[in-house]
Amino acid sequence: MASFTIYAPQTGQKIAFPDHDVATAVWQITATKGYFKGSHVKRLQLTYGKVPDGYQQIVPDKSQAPPLAPGIVYAFFVETTDAPISTGYFYVGESDPVQTEIPDLCLMFVQGRKTRVKCKLNTAEPYEEPVDLEKYVREHQITQ
Fold first, then answer.
1. Are the C-beta atoms of residues 81 and 36 closer than 8 Å to each other?
2. Where in the chain are the domains?
3. 3-state SS string over 78-90?
4. pTM summary value
5. What is the number of other CB atoms lying within 10 angstroms of the CB of residue 97?
6. Residue 39: pLDDT above 80?
7. What pLDDT, in 10s, does the model give residues 58-80?
8. Of 11, 54, 116, 129, which has the fewest beta carbons less than 10 angstroms from its beta carbon?
9. Strands 105-110 and 98-100
10. Residue 56 half-sphere exposure, CB side, CA atoms within 13 Å?
């Protein structure tokens, strides 16, 4: 793994998108010895806010990672060197985080800037977050 980033949604939103232009990085780590010198993902276990051996924290710069707020869907973005990038979402509720899908949220350039839109071909219809986020997360939960 070369880098791992967790994104929080922008103010007024409850769902993040794994992109720095439309979300805020709240925790990011990178391989200390360089992009191609990270640990194998198979053996790597990550805990939010704890920097594993062989990595350095980039965000936040020198302070502890902020607590994750309940009622929010965070996004993650993982860069690897021997596999494609990986992205995903997890919901922070009252108990353990729940990995979920957000199948209808996409990103598109609209009038020259990245904008959250509904995932339909050839449309720039704005993405509307679900009214009952917890129910939405349960319906789209990824079970392992």
1. yes
2. 3-101
3. EECCCCCCEEEEE
4. 0.91
5. 14
6. no
7. 999 988 999 999 999 999 999 98
8. 11
9. unpaired
10. 9
Task: Please state, in angstroms and rounded to a whole number, the distance separating the CA atoms of residues 89 and 100.
Answer: 5
The tally of CA atoms less than 13 A away on the side-chain side of residue 24 is 12
pLDDT attached to residue 81: 85
Omega before residue 52 within 30° of 0, cis: no
CA 10 – CA 22 distance, rounded (Å): 7
Helices marked H in the chain — which ranges?
133-139
Q: Please, which residues bridge with residue 72 across strands?
A: 92
Query: Residue 13 class from Cβ within 10 Å (0-12 exposed, 13-18 middle, 19+ buried)?
Result: middle
Contact of 1 with 78, CB cutoff 8 Å: yes
Return the H-helix or E-strand segment holding 58. strand 55-59
CA trace torsion 48, 96, 25, 87 (10° rounding): 100
Q: In the block, which residue shows the tokens 């050839």?
A: 122
Q: Is the pLDDT of residue 131 over 70?
A: yes
Please enumerate in sequence order all residues whose Cβ is within 8 A of that of 109, keeping only pairs 6 or more positions apart, or say none: 115
For residue 96, what pLDDT is reported?
85
Q: What single-letter amino acid sits at 93?
A: G
